[in-house]
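Input chain follows. Return structure tokens only.
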Amino acid sequence: MIRVGVDLGGTKIEAIALSVDGEMLARRRIATPAEDYDAILRAVGAVVSAVEQEAGGRGAVGVGTPGAISPRTGLVKNSNTLALNGRPLAHDLALVLNRVVRLENDANCFALSEAVDGAGEGARVVFGVILGTGVGGGIVIDGKILRGHNRIAGEWGHNPLPRLRESEYPGPLCYCGEKGCIETFLCGPALARDFATRGGARLTAEEIARRADQGDARAKETLAAYRDRLARALASVVNVIDPDVIALGGGVSNVATLYEGLERQVERYAFTDALDTKILRNVHGDSGGVRGAAWLWGAREG
């Protein structure tokens, strides 16, 4: 039996086929027709068909996408791919693919992937973090995703940034309508914005890190401020769920200097005398979400 995972993002749709032991058998990636719901359904059908043909079998399909399924209506909510909101996505994909489809939040899929055979392998409680265009999170306990009663477990990005400094208050306006959300301080565009407000150019996280490595004082200050904000935000998660491992993903997680002293800073803000939680870079890179979608059908049970 093969497992097919689909990462239905705002800019790309990626599909993979995994063997029962996690070996990647096939992979396809296409642009997302983000403004056309019916075209999205057709695109998912096309990439699933392509990877199954290459892998030589028909598989169980899991799909990860921003947002969640409302337990009240069964429709997609909170997706930044606006065409999906208010739609019965799982039902419609099942019709297109002619099989039951498991649909899950993309951050939950990332967390599951890292818990199964990534940075959190063997850990009981894993908190998966996405630091990218937005900020997401997922919680996996004993190999199972914690979705929560309202299907919003792990959505730390829309809590306010803890311990706001005077210069940070009240914080930028978030798309959710509130000010000062963690997402507005820790997403990739926020890092670029902070560097620009310090007098720098508009650069990516990787470019800012490169300048910091070359001794640019402005870049170093920007990353130091970002690391401190990340530590404050993660400490609030530690205080609530006390995970064994925190796995960082998304574009900003590729900044190697981000991890320097981060655990000690989190320890400073967390309600503990000693922090044993490991904060690690992801193992599977940008394939974490799509691998986690495939693992929605169970991990290595044979």
